[in-house]
Write a structure and sequence with these properties.
The chain is α+β, with helices and mostly antiparallel strands. The chain is built from 17 helices and 22 strands. The strands form 6 sheets. A 7-stranded antiparallel β-sheet has the order 8-3-2-12-11-1-22, covered by helices on one side. The chain has a 6-stranded antiparallel β-sheet with strand order 9-10-15-16-20-21. The two termini are 14 Å apart.
Length: 522
């Protein structure tokens, strides 16, 4: 029997973490563990991720190789037209409601299954049937629903009710499963066993692919067999930047989240933080202004050049950054459905995986329990409007799996769910760590703010800003939340101290969990 691997995993559900821990106990490395956790999350966090969605995994290997595996969703090869099955639904987070579009016409080419299997094939060392075993067991035996997952079922009830296969499992008789209930999805266990036996061709060319395409073509979707067969996982060089002397690696273009985080940190680095108190009016104004300037920079040309090879380098160049920095310093002187897994092992490997199914499109492949994504119906991903996409390109995403290196070795692994709030959540956690000297646990747990579309959202812990704080009182608003909420992201993070001690935190906004394995001494 292989010896247990020392490691740490933080994720959004106890069973997600438990699956990875079990693989570490069996001698797997961090990549085996993260793939096992991601498969388990499809069972334990079914509203947040799916084999029918997509994601990114940022890998650091013990021999100091850094690779970003891009397996996010792709636009169909068919030119966009008005789809036959595409309609809006509202998702209410409590203080904020957001409109999404679902239906077969909202499905983009999924990449999750292919991405996980490619990472496992290249970087894992245990057999796939061993790695998939925890998820298969959970799908058959069931997972106890916690308060957060019950909340997710509740806010997505309108979508889940559209799905004949998942409706009776998640929202029987229109009522979301309550905390303490058991969620079972045996069809997904069957699909995972098929995937283990047939490999990736089974999903992208075999029975699963054939059924998906048949339903799309008959029901008003876009996907074709060619879309699935030709889908490729793209291995990219991570975007590398620095903050307060630390090397930070994150998701490069054509996804925009990583570059926007790098831009925000470059602005924040212009400010001497020593005299600024956490949660003060000055701190709040600083963060708000950085978020505002970052949004402005997007509209000033970044988004329109996402597919230009040097867009990130140009965007972060001093001559481009300086006008925004000057504006920031002037201001200082005056005053969602996504999940994440972070893991590190004692061999020097680290993995940061962010994945999403959007909100789901309301359709699952019959006999599989796999709901497909609604990435063509996400307004955040299509700022130019729906049905305007360039055919057969990787969709730009806000997801930003991130690593921080010290002397070329990983000292911090983090990422978040939360749509447009991903970048502001990661910005604030990184700043809490390196500007305020917080522990990972405190940095993740501390209250957050988010500025977007003239609305300043505040979690408890930030005082109501004084009169005159808002630049445009006629348009700007303040939304005070009564408690911390998944709206502000879900940053799951692990770290390695200089003495080798492993630490971390699962974000309580999304019921996050941390586990650390320490092999017993012989």
């Amino acid at each position: 029997m292989a010896s247990q691997t020392r490691g740490a995993i933080a994720a959004g559900h106890p069973k997600t973490v438990e699956a990875g821990v079990e693989i570490l106990r069996q001698g797997g490395n961090v990549f085996d563990a993260v793939v096992a956790s991601a498969l388990a999350a499809c069972v334990a966090e079914p509203t947040l991720t799916s084999l029918g969605g997509g994601g990114f995994l940022l890998a650091h290997t013990a021999d100091n190789r850094n690779t970003l595996f891009d397996f996010f969703t792709q636009t169909p090869r068919q030119s966009p037209t008005e789809p036959g099955d595409f309609f809006p639904v509202d998702v209410n987070f409590g203080n904020v409601a957001q409109e999404f579009h679902i239906g077969l016409g909202a499905i983009a080419v999924p990449g999750m299954a292919k991405g996980l299997l490619q990472v496992h094939q290249q970087l894992g060392r245990l057999p796939l049937n061993v790695v998939a075993a925890p998820a298969i067991h959970y799908a058959r035996a069931g997972v106890v629903v916690n308060e957060f997952q019950s909340y997710c079922f509740k806010i997505l009830t309108a979508i889940l009710q559209k799905c004949p296969q998942l409706q009776p499992l998640c929202v029987p008789n229109g009522t979301p499963l309550a905390p303490g209930a058991t969620f079972q999805i045996p069809a997904l266990a069957d699909a995972l066993e098929y995937l283990v036996e047939e490999g990736i061709r089974g999903f992208y060319e075999g029975d699963i692919a054939q059924q998906l395409v048949k339903d799309c073509q008959a029901g008003g979707g876009y996907l074709t067999l060619e879309d699935l067969r030709e889908y490729q996982v793209i291995e990219r060089s991570p975007l590398s930047t620095s903050y307060r002397g630390n090397t930070l690696l994150t998701n490069p273009p054509p996804s925009s989240g990583g570059s926007l985080i790098a831009f925000s940190l470059a602005l924040l680095e212009q400010v001497e933080m020593g005299a600024i108190a956490f949660g003060s009016t000055t701190h709040m104004r600083l963060l708000t202004e950085i978020m505002r300037l970052t949004n402005q920079a997007r509209t000033d040309g970044y988004d329109s050049h996402l597919y230009t090879s040097d867009v990130a380098q140009t965007f972060l160049a001093t001559e481009h950054l300086q006008p925004y920095a000057n504006s920031l310093l002037g201001a200082v002187n005056k005053w969602g459905s996504t999940t994440h897994i972070s893991a590190i092992d004692g061999e020097g490997n680290a993995a940061s995986l962010t994945s999403s199914n959007g909100e789901g499109c309301g359709y699952s492949i019959p006999g599989t329990g796999i709901m497909l994504n609604n990435m063509l119906g996400e307004a955040d991903l299509h700022p130019a409007g729906f049905h305007q996409w360039q055919p057969n390109v990787r969709i730009s995403s806000m997801m930003a799996p991130t690593l921080v290196l010290r002397d070329r070795h990983p000292c911090l692994v983090l990422g978040s769910g939360g749509s447009n709030r991903i970048r502001t959540a990661i910005l604030q956690v990184v700043s809490n760590l390196f500007d305020f000297g917080m522990s990972i646990e405190a940095a993740v747990a501390s209250p957050r703010i988010h500025w977007e579309n003239h609305v300043l959202s505040l979690e408890p812990g930030f005082a109501l800003p004084p009169e005159g704080f808002l630049q445009d009182p006629e348009r700007d608003q303040i939304s005070r939340w009564e408690e911390q909420n998944m709206f502000f992201g879900g940053v799951h993070a692990v770290g390695l101290e200089a003495d080798g001690t492993m630490t971390g935190s699962g974000d309580r906004r999304r019921n996050g969990i941390l586990a650390i394995t320490t092999p017993e001494r012989a």
